[in-house]
Amino acid sequence: AGPVQVQLVVPMAVVFAPGSVPGDLPRPLPFRDVQEMEISVNLRTSVTSRYEMRYRSTTAQEEAALAAATAREADAALYPLQDTTLGSLTMYVVPETSSLLPQGINVYVGKHRSALLRAGGGLAALQARLREVTQLMSFTATSIAAALSDRVPDGQLGPDARRNLKSSLGYEITFSLLNPDPKSHTVDWDIEGAVNRFVKPVLDKLSLVANFSVDSQILYYAVLGVTPRYDKESSSFLLSAHSLPHVINPVEARLGSSAASLYPVLNFLLYVPERSHSPLYIQDKDGAPVSTNAFHSPRWGGIMVYNVEAPASPQVSLPLHVDVDMARVMEVFLAQLRLLFGLSREEVPPEFLLESPGNEGLADWELDHLLWAHAVENIATVSTTLTSLAQLLDKIGNIVIKDDVASEVYRAVASVQSAVTELSLGHLLAAFQASKEAVTCSERAFFDPSLLHLLYFPDDQKFAIYIPLFLPMAVPILLSLAKIVRETRLRKKEPTKMD
Amino acid sequence: VCTSRFWFNYRHVANTLSVYRSVKRLGIPDSHIVLMLADDMACNPRNPKPATVFSHKNMELNVYGDDVEVDYRSYEVTVENFLRVLTGRIPPSTPRSKRLLSDDRSNILIYMTGHGGNGFLKFQDSEEITNVELADAFEQMWQKRRYNELLFIIDTCQGASMYERFYSPNIMALASSQVGEDSLSHQPDLGIGVHLMDRYTFYVLEFLEEIHPASQTNMNDLFQVCPKSLCVSTPGHRTDLFQRDPQNVLITDFFGSVRKVEITTETLSLDRDVPGLESKFPEEELATEPLKYAEQLPVAQIIHQKPKQKDWHPPGGFILGLWALIIMVFFKTYGIKHMKHVF
């Protein structure tokens, strides 16, 4: 893998509301400061992060916005006043006694690219808090290491390191409804409406990251591979956590996927249990039923169990008509989609309050988070691909490089150089798009079908083939050459003799 | 991969199909299996029991069955296609089922059977793959992180020579015989008239019958399968490139498929009163142009075309030099006076 030296630049503004300026500032406002940190992955790969901070005080408009009643309103009012380029961050510091942030909360992270911090404790404490927030909203050492996971020596990565979806040009999302008992349940799901209302906004927001295509299907008589256990206390059926891994494989054989596209497929399955196994709950490791009744598998997708309410009267004509509550289902599926991409809100310190992104599915800074990780991953992939291609061509001298392969390689090199430059200038979107272009070109060059080397001739085979061919032919030539040499020598001697 | 064709190589097809069945039984779906077979056994005119392939002379199990999905069949089983599948250098028109869509978290099992020799494996009686090519293909896979760990099993004569040259990390290899030894077949069936299975694969399959998807058996047990007393040849294995201790490697890591699963504890809160976005298909039919018969290829023109003149290239340096040498020697030896008889 080739050496990768990347500098990630995050332009930031730290804005102090009146009354929040710490007493021990090194210089009067406004001033600029730079903080650099090195995230070294291995000997030849190093990523430096550089936060270019502009400290200043609020403008009159910002002060008016910060006078709002709640943090959410303040965030909405501040949004038009901010720098909204991808990758940039704005931090507003409010006085310690401000009532904008609820009690016990010191940091409020909004839906866009800004956060409200509570001042207090002097400059050092403020900077520590700033660092925490900026790392949450852009990238951390762990997220960069996860993006570069194939360069990190195996021992250093945790067991959960390779969970997130790999950066790809596109993803195929398939929603499947599994109805194992059509005699008892006629299930209607308005998937098209649900996709239009709930899924499309999220995918539109993610469209910067990759192309998405959505399909859906209904499978009848598709059963889970595991028989659930009946629990008398709750009079329901339970699927324990350790039997979940065996559920996916029997179903996967029945799930189709588009034969034409090569993008990774994300499957979201909605399982309506049979009447004889209803209601069905999933148990977590401690034995408690899971509130979402769903589980997911990294890089594959998710499964949710949808229980049908038992009808009030026991004598009811089968099949029961079931109208699936798509909003509840999509809440879970879209949360699983976020988790598959690695956008989790689990490990947030308790003094932080994160604004919910609502129907957009993810906050602007979460999108940035994905773009940083994918840009770094793409650059590392391109570097590995091109280096290994060069090594291959060095080793096997008789591969012919077609012109278009060569031009793809040049384009990939140019794009990756531009991506690294844009990252060091702080232009995240341009850098990401350049890195995507670089990956496309380098993959096309590396996987070009013409680069197959089949001609391996060991030396003894070369002798075995050429000697029987050329030796008989060469015998008269060599003998004649010997005769010529002898005659020339004789003729040279003769004149001296005659004299 | 079964690299043989013709009726008398029945046992290689039975080997491959039996391993395919075990792997499917342990949970790997067809979309994750690339099966390369000559597939000329079941419908062979010499098969006394058509549409079946048996692996045991008691004919208990028809390994061909109803749901065998062969991805590369008959003449598509070539060294080139095999290397293309491994390295991923496949023409863009190839469907998903014929590709190896693995990533850095995939464990790959490769099982090959057929006729082999010291350092090579014969593909369908017309070509060979050498151990160096195989090692290079695995290195190409490693460079692109197309596998996390790879288990290579080969059941041919002198099978151990095929894994001698591997140099990429995370590869474990098993072979049915050492260099200089032949792998023998198990039992002939007098009804069908050919040998049904090879010994090594037969005992491996007996071993696999005990494995179920949640089993904890490890690789060391697989290494003990088929000792010399049963197999006549000495099975070999190679684990020096593998990072984990074989004791800790479960059989189901390669032969089955156990996924990592996480409980979903987060939900997104959605605002349910979202008006539907415009649907993609408006209610009224758009007026479309009447369809025309598309321009077809001008076949008549092409048939009657004169064949294109191939560009003439002057002969290369080597040929010219050789001819010059021969002519010069001829005339030097036999004298210039012969020239006028030639011209």
Automatic annotation (TrEMBL), chain A:
It is a multi-pass membrane protein. GO terms for biological process: attachment of GPI anchor to protein; GPI anchor biosynthetic process. Belongs to the PIGS family. The chain crosses the membrane at residues 463-485. Its main location: endoplasmic reticulum. It comes from the Eukaryota. One of its GO terms (cellular component) is GPI-anchor transamidase complex. Pathway: Glycolipid biosynthesis; glycosylphosphatidylinositol-anchor biosynthesis. The keyword Methyltransferase does not apply. This is PIGS transamidase. InterPro entries: PtdIno-glycan_biosynth_class_S. The keyword Membrane applies. It comes from Pheucticus melanocephalus. Pfam families: PIG-S. Keywords: Endoplasmic reticulum, Glycoprotein, GPI-anchor biosynthesis, Membrane, Transmembrane, Transmembrane helix. It is found in: Endoplasmic reticulum membrane.
Automatic annotation (TrEMBL), chain B:
Gene3D superfamilies: 3.40.50.1460. Signal peptide: none annotated. The active site is at H115, C157 (nucleophile). The chain crosses the membrane at residues 312-331. The keyword Phosphoprotein does not apply. Pfam families: Peptidase_C13 (PF01650). Keywords: GPI-anchor biosynthesis, Membrane, Signal, Transmembrane, Transmembrane helix. GO terms for cellular component: GPI-anchor transamidase complex. The keyword Cell wall biogenesis/degradation does not apply. One of its GO terms (molecular function) is GPI-anchor transamidase activity. Pathway: Glycolipid biosynthesis; glycosylphosphatidylinositol-anchor biosynthesis. GO terms for biological process: attachment of GPI anchor to protein; GPI anchor biosynthetic process; proteolysis. Belongs to the peptidase C13 family. Heteropentamer. Part of the GPI-anchor transamidase complex, consisting of PIGK, PIGT, PIGS, PIGU and GAA1. Interacts with GPAA1. Interacts with PIGT; this interaction, via a disulfide link, stabilizes the expression of GAA1 and PIGK and links them to PIGS. This is GPI-anchor transamidase. It comes from Pheucticus melanocephalus. The lineage of its organism: Eukaryota, Metazoa, Chordata, Craniata, Vertebrata. The gene is Pigk.
